[in-house]
Amino acid sequence: MARTEHKKKPDPPADVGSELHDLTVTYIQVAVVLAVVTLLEVATYYVAMARGLTISVLLVLSAIKFALVVLYFMHLKFDNRILAFVFSGPLLMMIAVGIAIMALFGTLLYPGPVW
Amino acid sequence: MAHVHEAAEHYTSTGIHPSKLLMWLFLGSDCFFFGSLIATYQAYRGQSLTGPHPHEIFNIPYTSISAFVLLMSSLTMALAVNSIRLGNMPATRIWLLLTAMLGSIFVGGQVFEFTTFVHKGLTLEVNLFGTTFFVLTGFHGTHVTVDIIILLSLLLASLLGRLTPRQALTVEVAGLYWHFVDIVWAVIFTVVYLLPY
Predict the structure, then answer these.
(1) A106: exposed, middle or buried (C-beta count within 10 Å: 0-12, 13-18, 19+)?
(2) What's the average model confidence in pLDDT over B155-175?
(3) Among candidates B76, B135, B67, which has minimal Cα distance to B106?
(4) N or C: which end of chain B has fewer CB within 10 A?
C-alpha cells in the first residue's frame, strides 16, 4: 500500500497549464513602464531637489524597476510561492547586512564626500 | 504539447523542476555576492582622498543609454522564453540573438567606459572609488559576458536541432539569470551613478 502511495505523482506545477499563454503584450507593456521609469530616474538626476528627496525618489524608482522585472519577466508573480521565499529571503537578509555595513562605516546617513 | 509532457516527467514534491529551483537558489546566493559589493561601495562612498572623483568622470547620458539597452534586452529575453513555450523556434532564435546582441552592446559600452576612465586617471588602485567601482561593475560585466555565451550556446544548439520546445525550461532558466543581471544593473545604475555624491 505504502509502495503504491510512493509511486503516486504529486499535483502538477501551477505553471504547466499556463505555458501556452502568449504573454507578448504583457511583456511589451512592462517594458514600456520600465522605459518610462528609467527616463524618470535620469530626469530626477538633473532636476534640482533637496538631497534627501532626490535619494528617496531614486531608490523608489529603482525598487519599482526591480519589482517589475522580478514579478513579470522572471515570472515570480505567477510561479510557485516557494521560489518567492527562496529569492526574497536572501535579498532581505542582504539589504539588512548592507545597512549594517554602512552603519558600521558611518556612511548610512551619508555625510557627503570628504573631498 | 511536447514541452508540457517534459514538464510532466519531472514532477517533484515541491512541484518545481530541480533546475529551476537550483537557479533561484543560485540567484539568492548571488544577491549576497552583489549585495556585498554594493554595500562595500556605499561604505567607502565619498571617502577617496585623491581624485579622480565620480562627478569628474561619469557620463550620465552615456550610461543611461547603456542601462536602457540592458533593460530592453530583458524584454527580448522574455519574448524568447515566450516563443519557445509556444513552440515557435524561428522567433526563439531571433529573440535569443537580439538579446545576445543587446548584451554585447552593453558589455562593449562598459569596456569603452572603463578605457575612458583609465585614460582619465581612474585605475583599480588609485583610490577607494576606483577599487570599489571597478570591482563592482567589473564583476557585473563578467556576469553579463557569461550569460551572452550561454545564450549563444542555446542559439547554436537550436540551429543544430538540439534545442526544441521540449527544452523550453532550459531557455527559461537561462532567462532567469539574464533578468537577474539586468536588475542588478538597475540597482548599480541608481546607487553608483545617479545618487548624489
Answers:
(1) exposed
(2) 94
(3) B67
(4) N
**ipTM of the predicted structure?**
0.88
Alpha-carbon separation of residue B191 from A89, B128, B184 (angstroms): 22, 16, 11
Q: Which residue type is seen at B176? A: L
Q: Say which CATH architecture domain B22-194 belongs to.
A: Up-down Bundle (1.20)
Q: At what angle do helices B60-85 and B89-119 cross, to 10 degrees?
A: 160
Among B17, B94, B183, B187, most A C-beta atoms within 10 A, so best to mutate, is B183
- pLDDT, tens digit (0-9, with 9 covering 90-100), for B91-126: 999 999 999 999 999 999 999 999 999 999 999 999
Chain A residues with beta carbon closer than 8 angstroms to that of B11: 9-10, 12-13
CB contact under 8 A, B85 and A66: no
Identify the residue whose cell numbers are 519577466. Answer: A73
**Mutation test of the interface with chain B: which of A94, A104, A110, choosing the one with the most B Cβ atoms within 10 A?**
A94
Rounded distance between C-alpha atoms, residue B163 and residue B47, angstroms: 50
DSSP string, chain B: -HHHHHHHHT--TTSS-HHHHHHHHHHHHHHHHHHHHHHHHHHTTT--SSS--HHHH--HHHHHHHHHHHHHHHHHHHHHHHHHHTT-HHHHHHHHHHHHHHHHHHHHHHHHHHHHHHHTT--TTTSHHHHHHHHHHHHHHHHHHHHHHHHHHHHHHHHTT---GGGHHHHHHHHHHHHHHHHHHHHHIIIIIIS--
Predicted pLDDT of residue A115: 61
- Min distance A38 CA to chain B CA atoms (Å): 7
